[in-house]
Design brief:
The complex is a heterodimer of chains A (about 210) and B (about 180). In chain A, about 25% of the residues lie in helices and about 20% in strands. Chain A is α/β, with parallel strands linked by helices. Chain A has a five-stranded mixed beta sheet with strand order 6-1-8-7-9. Chain A starts with 7 loop residues before the first strand and ends with a helix. Chain B is of the alpha+beta class and about 180 residues long. In chain B, a hairpin with a 2-residue loop joins strand 3 and strand 4. The model of chain B has no long low-confidence stretch (mean pLDDT about 85). The chains are: A alpha/beta (about 210), B alpha+beta (about 180). Chains A and B meet through loops of A and loops of B.
Chain lengths: ~210, ~180
């Protein structure tokens, strides 16, 4: 059974509080018990506590599948990129290196690449993925587009990404500020900029103090 | 739910026509990939072997039922005087479509066999002067008195018709289907 088309995945990194609930919930899934397929990344560990959950974006043209020499990574008709087929995967790590989002995980113990498959066992049965069910701030949201638009009026969903010269469109959406009107999200932009996280957070605090004084 | 199982995923945002030819053999789309899982293969093997086993038992059962069908009726073919030495006479036994042939190779011997060649069921022709039956389709030869295959494609002997001679009259009394 395929994943219903009206149900979409929305990631809102602004809302992530780094609680690790999604990581724990992911590792409780029966299809890969004990191994979490989700990445909870620190944006700039030295200066900020901001975290970003990274699930598979399910690219329309999956780079991992394109670079797979063993023809092991397949995409189902509903647009979900599946974990590598066990009999085919040769554990060469090509997909791990190629993925613009760094999603695939190589399990050398199993000689198998495993990745987020949007909890295919759950979503194909009409349920939400494990991570979206437990996320307390709903940084990981799974539902219809109407729902997310009414819940997040100040954000808009985008699914266009730029990775170097490669333009990527994905099944999973990223929430961006509506005011910004981003045409696309540059995946590697943060690598080229010096972090300003500390200054900003201090500014926020100072502003708040200043307002209270007034 | 508008799920298209025939959806084609084209790497690099290129049209399907611009893709290299090998992409057709190694598609990214799951439905187009003729992937046979180990479980499917095992299931196929188990079910096929099971079918073979059932088939063997079916053959055994058919054999058993044929033996139990009872004796075939007597059929008067000819009198001894009607058939000269080296002569042959065709008849149908046990039913109309089963054509058989009665041969008298010498004075005291009468033999009868089904005319169906055991290769591809052509009608065999008795050749008493050469002491054999000849199948003209693929040049198969059978021994005239035993029905054993002599040369050519047939590997099994002709079914023998049991004969009884009572008061100078030859009767067919049964069919002996040798399988080896």
């Amino acid at each position: 059974m395929p994943v219903p088309d009206q149900n979409e995945f929305f990631i809102d990194p602004n809302r992530c509080i780094g609680c690790q609930s999604c990581v724990q919930a992911c590792s409780e899934c029966d299809t890969h018990r004990g191994f979490s397929m989700i990445h909870l990344e620190y944006v700039d560990r030295a200066h900020s506590v901001q975290t970003v959950p990274v699930v598979c974006m399910h690219c329309d043209s999956p780079t991992c599948a394109e670079v797979c020499p063993a023809d092991a990574i397949k995409k189902t008709g509903d647009g979900v990129v599946q974990t590598a087929r066990k009999p085919r995967c040769i554990a060469c790590n090509n997909c791990v290196l190629a993925c613009p989002f760094g999603v695939p995980k190589m399990k050398t113990d199993f000689k198998l690449m495993m990745k987020c498959d949007m909890c295919y066992d759950r979503t194909s049965a009409g349920l939400r993925p494990m991570c979206a069910t437990v996320c307390p701030s709903q940084a990981l949201f799974f539902g219809t587009r109407e729902q997310v638009e009414s819940l997040r009026p100040r954000s808009t969903a985008t699914n266009r990404f730029q990775f170097g010269a490669q333009t990527i469109t994905t099944k999973v959406n990223m929430m961006t500020p509506r005011a910004g009107q981003a045409e696309y999200i540059d995946v590697t932009a943060a690598m080229n900029e010096r972090s300003t996280g500390k200054q900003r957070s201090l500014n926020v605090l100072l502003d708040a103090m200043y307002q209270e004084e007034q | 739910m508008a799920i298209d199982d025939q959806r084609v995923f084209t790497p690099g945002n290129r049209q399907p026509a611009d893709q290299p030819r090998w992409r057709q053999d190694f598609p990214i789309a799951w439905p187009q990939d003729h992937f046979v899982s180990r479980r499917d293969f095992t299931r196929f093997m188990v079910l096929t072997s099971l079918a073979f086993v059932v088939g063997q038992f079916w053959i055994l059962a058919r054999n058993f039922l044929r033996r139990r069908r009872g004796e075939l009726p007597l059929l008067r073919i000819a009198t001894v005087d009607q058939l000269p030495v080296g002569g042959a006479r065709s008849f149908a036994y046990p039913a109309a479509p089963d054509s058989c042939v009665l041969v008298r190779p010498n004075e005291n011997t009468f033999v009868a066999f089904s005319q169906k060649c055991t290769h591809l069921s052509c009608a065999v022709v008795p050749r008493p002067e050469r002491n054999c039956f000849q199948c003209p389709c693929h040049e198969g030869f059978f021994d005239l008195t035993s029905g054993e295959p002599l040369s050519g494609p047939p590997r099994r002997p002709l079914p023998r018709i049991n004969l009884e001679i009572r008061d100078g009259v030859i009767y067919a009394s049964g069919v002996e289907e040798a399988t080896i």
